[in-house]
Amino acid sequence: VNMAEQLEEFNKILTSFLSVDNTIRTQAEEAYNALPLETKVVYLLNTVQNQGSPRTDDERQMAAVLLRRLFTAEFNEFYSKLAPEAQQQLKEQLLLAVQMEQVDSLRRKICDVVAEVARNLLDDDGNNLWPEFLQFLFQCANGPSPHLKEAA
Length: 152
What we know:
Importin_beta, 76% helix, mainly alpha
């Protein structure tokens, strides 16, 4: 199974999450839960950023909610396995997603994901392991964009 086929299958799962039919939603949840954690993160982040085949705003919002839930429950398990470059890339992609998003409701959901990552990147002593996040907040709060001020 190649990457394109996996992505198409993932897109079907995501679309099924939005179904009004309980059976279809249950099947989607089972298929989603069977995916490896790393696969979920990659596909959810791509969907949130609208990379690959264009997704609806509802699908992208669902992906942001699922990504936040993953990071709430399993962040350390996932993040600790990433190489430092991949960790940095993930953080950069999330901040870029906040900056680039045009849909207000979706930007807020992406902010929820970013906040969850930032929360997980505080160590037990309260040290921030993501200094770029604070710089980003400062730039957004002091920048000209009202959308980014709200995001901060």
